[in-house]
From TrEMBL:
The chain crosses the membrane at residues 46-66, 73-93, 99-122. This is Membrane protein YphA (DoxX/SURF4 family). It comes from the Bacteria. Belongs to the DoxX family. Keywords: Cell membrane, Membrane, Transmembrane, Transmembrane helix. It comes from Alkalicoccobacillus murimartini. It is a multi-pass membrane protein. InterPro entries: DoxX, DoxX-like_oxidoreductase. Its main location: membrane. It is found in: Cell membrane. It holds the Pfam family DoxX.
Length: 129
């Protein structure tokens, strides 16, 4: 039971963190985020993909819906962010938060989080997502 409580807390905190980061990408207009992605060498449309993944995925984690799938998506986003954008800045002031979010996302992807989760209401095999 202690492990499930820990996973619930981790799921909610990671969900809130991604939700807020996603909403922040709309701050001042999504166009600024698109420009930032282009400046970093990514296609502009990826700004929309990442932003909506963070907002919708963050909400999904908070309520416990498709925790494993969402966490895999977040782990990919963080892995790319670390490798392509933050690695050159070093650990402190660079990729430390991204690394914690990557490790947390991997933990949730591997373990899931069933306590107080909408997934428990889904039929059969969908419960495991």
């Amino acid at each position: 039971m202690k492990t499930e409580i820990g996973l619930l807390l981790l799921r909610i905190v990671v969900g809130i963190t991604f939700l807020i980061h996603g909403l922040d990408k709309f701050n001042g207009g999504i166009e600024g985020t698109v420009a930032s992605f282009v400046d970093m060498g990514f296609p502009g449309f990826l700004a929309y993909v990442v932003t909506f993944a963070e907002v919708l995925g963050g909400l999904a984690l908070i309520i416990g819906l498709f925790t494993r799938v969402v966490s895999i998506v977040f782990a990919i986003i963080m892995g790319v962010a670390i490798y392509q954008v933050k690695l050159s800045a070093g650990f402190l002031g660079g990729y430390e938060l991204d690394l914690v979010l990557l490790a947390s996302s991997l933990m949730l992807a591997l373990s899931g989080s069933r306590l107080v989760a909408v997934n428990r209401l889904l039929p059969g095999g969908l419960k495991k997502l």
